[in-house]
């Protein structure tokens, strides 16, 4: 062996171990929102570091080819680094990239989508339109779920779970949620203190109040409060109601019972204490009734932009038959129904379909029909049995993307256009490649930022039959 070879081997064997200090330049962000840096062949994930940062980090865990390190010192900050707006941004898992300038967050997300389409989808000359961001990237969530507990001094706290633990850090002001949440939490906690209502203790399974769910209609301003309780009643409920109903626009106050030892937040039963059992809100011109247990998009402003884009990509004239697969509560279906002849929605969760039907009814939409079941089973069955042709098929699947057999049915049905709405651009790229190898061409695509301060990004793509 020559000297040089020996040298190389020695370098490779200089392994990085736990507790080592390393200097890194952060190049990218992982799916979980950590900064990614390299040293030799090793990839290190560093929470709270952003691309462009030069840092000193301490290794906390090593695997074979990658590891995790803690940010110890920023040697030279990224030009895109900004101070966090929220004082607890680092401890709370809710935001991952709050210290990254918002314009840079948008560039990063667009690059991520393009990168996946190129690398996984093997697309070149991608017809990508500029990402749609938010004018005001804070206070965008219409729903908040605060765990309630006790701190080590026995005070009642409401906030968020620290890191991966289940200990609660008191923080009633989240910069992503509605500003009124803080006032509502203060009211609930002072009621609990006055009436000696105990928070739930996960370890013992004792205590009453587990979580507080707050939902706000951004258009209607209506507010819903639901306390998730380890029991069916609360002491002196009338006192709680009296205080909460003073909050302007309070519309619905209820209790949800959850007696299980589980991480699932909500139980099945809801009892109304005051007001209406639901609040109403709008996405575009469609009205929705939202009860404590219903699903509803958490960022209505960006949802309207994303689904309007899906509608534009569908290119409807009023004559078309359209399928909306993975339709949830029918948000896209009802948008499409206003410009199509007939819309069929398919969704696996029965309660979501109940909501979809009710939403169609309260909006006077008669040309939308919904099916409960797996899209990959319902679509082929209905197509083969009834030969229902489709001009346009829209899909909005969960992160894992579309089932292979569903893509095969779409290819067999030969719609003029396919509109793919995706929350994971890696599975989007994989599925678009299959469609584009089988008679379709990618005509337009655009990312939409539904979740500023997080690494998530939504994408809409339009495919046309060649
Ligand atoms: N556009 C919808 C949200 C889509 S989210 C809305 O606005 O409400 C993805 C949906 O796919 C979820 O509601 C999930 O329950 C549903 N889903 C997951 N797997 C499915 C399957 N195999 N077939 C049909 N629906 C499915």
Structure overview:
The chain has 466 residues and is of the alpha/beta class. It folds into three domains: 2-76, Nucleic acid-binding proteins (OB fold (Dihydrolipoamide Acetyltransferase, E2P)); 107-136 and 299-465, 3-Layer(aba) Sandwich (Rossmann fold); 143-290, OB fold (Dihydrolipoamide Acetyltransferase, E2P) (Beta Barrel). The protein is built from ten helices and 22 strands. The chain has helices at 3-13, 102-119, 180-194, 237-244, 300-314, 331-337, 350-362, 375-386, 404-413, 425-436, and strands at 21-29, 35-39, 42-46, 54-62, 66-76, 128-132, 143-150, 156-161, 168-170, 209-216, 223-229, 250-257, 269-275, 279-283, 286-290, 321-325, 342-347, 368-372, 392-395, 417-422, 440-448, 458-465. The chain has an eight-stranded mixed sheet with strand order 6-21-22-20-19-16-17-18, sandwiched between helices. A seven-stranded mixed sheet has the order 9-8-7-10-11-12-13. Strand 2 and strand 3 form a beta hairpin. Helix 2 runs parallel beside helix 10 and helix 3 (180-194) packs antiparallel against helix 4. The longest helix is centred in the first third of the chain and has 18 residues, at 102-119. The protein is globular and about 65 Å long. The model has no long low-confidence stretch (mean pLDDT 94). Residues 297, 326-329, 331-332, 346-349, 352, 374-376, 396-398 line the site of S-adenosyl-L-homocysteine (SAH).
């Amino acid at each position: 062996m020559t000297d040089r070879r020996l040298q190389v081997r020695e370098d490779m064997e200089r392994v990085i171990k736990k507790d080592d200090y390393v200097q890194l330049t952060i190049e990218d962000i992982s799916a979980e929102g950590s900064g990614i840096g390299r040293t030799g062949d090793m990839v290190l994930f560093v929470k709270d570091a952003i691309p462009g940062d030069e840092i000193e980090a301490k290794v906390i865990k090593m695997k074979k080819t990658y590891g995790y390190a803690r940010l110890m010192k920023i040697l030279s900050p990224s030009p895109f680094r900004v101070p966090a707006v929220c004082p607890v941004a680092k401890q709370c898992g809710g935001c991952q990239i709050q210290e990254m300038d918002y314009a840079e967050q948008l560039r990063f997300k667009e690059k991520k989508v393009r990168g996946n389409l190129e690398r996984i989808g093997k697309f070149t000359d991608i017809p990508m339109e500029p990402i749609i961001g938010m004018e005001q990237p804070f206070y965008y969530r219409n729903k908040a779920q605060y765990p309630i507990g006790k701190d080590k001094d026995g005070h009642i706290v409401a906030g968020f779970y620290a890191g991966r633990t289940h200990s609660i850090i008191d923080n009633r002001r989240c910069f992503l949620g509605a500003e009124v949440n803080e006032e509502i939490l203060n009211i609930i906690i002072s009621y609990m203190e006055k009436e000696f209502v105990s928070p739930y203790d996960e370890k013992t399974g004792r205590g009453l109040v587990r979580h507080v769910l707050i939902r706000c209609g951004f258009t209607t301003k209506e507010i819903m409060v639901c306390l998730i309780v380890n029991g069916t009643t609360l002491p002196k409920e009338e006192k709680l109601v009296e205080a909460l109903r003073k909050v302007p626009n309070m519309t619905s106050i209820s209790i949800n019972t959850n007696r299980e030892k589980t991480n699932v937040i909500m139980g099945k039963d809801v009892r109304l204490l005051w007001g209406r059992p639901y609040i109403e809100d709008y996405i575009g011109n469609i009205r929705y009734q939202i009860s404590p247990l219903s699903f509803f998009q958490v960022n209505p402003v960006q949802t309207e932009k994303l689904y309007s884009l899906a509608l534009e990509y569908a290119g409807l004239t009023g004559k078309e038959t359209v399928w909306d697969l993975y339709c949830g509560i029918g948000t896209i279906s009802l948008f499409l129904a206003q410009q199509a002849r007939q819309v069929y929605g398919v969704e696996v969760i029965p309660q979501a379909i109940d909501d979809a039907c009710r939403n169609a009814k309260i909006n006077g939409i008669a040309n939308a029909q919904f099916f409960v079941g797996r899209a990959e089973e319902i679509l082929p069955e209905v197509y083969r049995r009834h030969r229902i042709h489709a001009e346009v098929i829209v899909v909005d699947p969960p992160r894992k993307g579309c089932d292979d057999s569903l893509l095969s049915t779409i290819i067999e049905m030969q719609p003029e256009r396919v509109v793919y709405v995706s929350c994971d651009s890696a599975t989007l790229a994989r599925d678009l490649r299959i469609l584009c190898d089988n008679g379709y061409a990618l005509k337009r695509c655009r990312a939409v930022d539904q979740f500023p301060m997080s690494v998530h990004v939504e994408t809409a793509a339009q495919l046309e039959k060649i």
